[in-house]
Design brief:
By secondary structure, this protein is an alpha+beta fold. It has one domain (21-144): Nuclear Transport Factor 2, Chain: A. Helices cover 39% and strands 35% of the residues. It has helices at 2-18, 22-42, 45-50, 68-80, and strands spanning 52-60, 63-66, 87-88, 92-95, 101-110, 113-124, 130-139. Strands 1, 2, 3, 4, 5, 6 and 7 form a seven-stranded mixed sheet that branches. The termini are far apart.
């Protein structure tokens, strides 16, 4: 009986010791989003594509790009120029309690300043990698900022 109690307590303690807090996961997702955004600065389209889930959906000019290849087909043009046409950065990260889905939002800017805000949903895959599954930009409204 003592052996059984030891095994149960070890399993419970081991789970508690390895569980990440919501704040830790939000930090992890923020770092993933920053790495994703850095692909634009680095002009690294191959790295960009590694962040996309196979079943990803990106909203693009009033329509949905469904699937990794469809997103890659459109976004390749953004990576072809010598300089990045825009950049983005995470401002808000929220994760569900289970820790496998997260929302990231933040400003998108070009040489003229902020022109859009993005909203992305990330999913933690079975291999532990975060992949983007949904993405949509929204026109920036300066008078609406902060609401």
């Amino acid at each position: 009986m003592k052996y059984l109690i030891f095994i149960v307590l070890t399993a419970v303690y081991g789970h508690i010791a390895t569980a990440q807090s919501v704040e830790d996961i939000e930090t992890e997702v923020a770092n993933v989003e920053k790495a994703f955004a850095k692909t634009m600065d680095d002009r690294d389209f191959a790295a960009f594509s590694r962040f996309l889930a196979d079943d990803t959906v990106f909203w693009n000019n009033g329509g949905a790009l469904r699937g990794k290849q469809a997103v890659m087909n459109v976004w390749k043009a953004y990576y072809d120029a010598k300089t990045a046409p825009f950049k983005w950065e995470p401002e808000t990260i929220m994760v569900i309690k289970g820790g496998n889905l997260a929302l990231s939002t933040g400003p998108v800017s070009d040489a003229n300043g902020v022109f859009s805000y993005y909203t992305s949903v990330w999913r933690k895959e079975a291999d532990g990698q975060w992949k983007i599954i949904l993405d949509k930009g929204q026109k920036y409204c300066e008078k609406c900022a902060g609401e």
